[in-house]
Amino acid sequence: MARQTEIPYLVAMRIYRDFLFEAAHYLPSAPPGHPNSRIHGHSFRARVIIDGEMNADTGVVFHFDDLSAAIEESRAALDHRLLNDVEGLSAPTLERIAVWLWQRLANKVPGLAQIEIHRDSCHEGVIYTGPSRATRLAAE
């Protein structure tokens, strides 16, 4: 039987889970005639990142099965949808999709540190690290 390595100190880790979704959208703020003002689709890749300390007994920061379960409802709400029709995403920019996902996961995923939304075919994306300090203080 393999011997486990003893770790006599707390270990800070960053873990993540990626998921994919296909969706259509249009941007109401785009000028008339601009391609983004018309309905079009993308393949999106999202990454949910958690910061935490490895549990000395289990050897994990957060169980990936639990992370997948927390993500699934949001993934299903986005996948093969017109994002403009999803509650809270009437103007679905990458930035707003990231904030929307954060708001849905913040109470389900302890240590939520970052949300990334990518449109790989366009070679672009956004990284959201949660509400600003000023926003958090104002909410208290």
Report on the architecture of this protein.
The protein has 140 residues and is of the alpha+beta class. The protein has one domain (15-139): 2-Layer Sandwich (Tetrahydropterin Synthase, Chain A). It is built from 3 helices and 5 strands, in the order ββαβαββα. A 5-stranded mixed sheet has the order 3-1-2-4-5. β4 (112-119) and β5 form a beta hairpin. The mean pLDDT is 91.
Task: Spell out the blueprint of helices and strands.
Blueprint (H helix, E strand, L loop, with lengths): L11 E14 L14 E14 L10 H15 L2 E2 L11 H12 L6 E8 L4 E5 L4 H7 L1
Parallel strand pairs: 1-3
Antiparallel strand pairs: 1-2, 2-4, 4-5
How is this structure best summarized?
The chain has 140 residues and is α+β, with helices and mostly antiparallel strands. The chain is 24% helix and 31% strand.
Distinctive features:
single chain, 140 residues, alpha+beta, Tetrahydropterin Synthase, Chain A, 5-stranded mixed sheet, 3 helices, 5 strands, 24% helix, elongated
